[in-house]
Please model this.
Amino acid sequence: MGYRDRADLPRAIQFLEAALKLQQAMGDVRGEASQLTNLGVAYRDLGESRRALDFFSAASEKFRELGNPQGKASVLSNMAIIYHAFGEFERALALHQQAFDIERKIGYRLGEASDHGNLALVYWDLELWERVQEHLQAALVIHQQIDDLRSVANDLSHLGLLARRQARLDEAIRFLEEARILHQQLGFRQGEAGDWGNLGLVYRDRGDWERAMQANEHALQIDHEIGYKQGEASELNRIANLLVDHGEFTRAISLHTDALSIAE
Model:
């Protein structure tokens, strides 16, 4: 559960708090656990992360009382994401690991793969690249086994970004091309555009200006066609940077200006 419009959050919280009081009065522990979780999500989306943690912690206890390990694991993951955002990496790792251990025990493979991905994100911020690789590869294997192709493509994209971060450029291209082709087959055009854009960065790293420009232009075209303004602005800036590499400063300034206009 999440909230797209922050303006709706205060009203949603009022509704959820009223529902929570009713379920507490009725002794509905299952409903109480659900509403505590929803309130945690609402306060998190509102930017009140400490209050969100209080609700997630209370929900975790209720799920424990109910003997609902999957619910408890989900709440632990939500708490871990908040601690990660706070920069409390060790605490985030411990909670993600608890969630992972629960989901492995109950055989919930999709949750297990999600935990691998979340652990990879924390290790990325810690720059522990071998651990990042380990968890991304583990997530990829599970997603392949359960035939979750959208997630497979996402894992391949992240492995490509990791390879680029470690200057393994040929490997980065291989991962990103696999991700791009799969995103294209799935019809997920935003993912395909993201892969083209990342390929452009890798080709620029290799000094292959023409292929970098082609890749970024492919990304720009897709982002324009699907109306993804943030992607358009990003690709215009990348193309402008390539023009700077070739000393085409006037065109580069024009594209940077266009990107700023779109972003606004």
Q: What stands out?
A: DSSP finds 13 helices and no strands in the chain. The radius of gyration is 22 Å. Residues 147 and 166 are 29 Å apart (CA to CA). The mean pLDDT is 95.
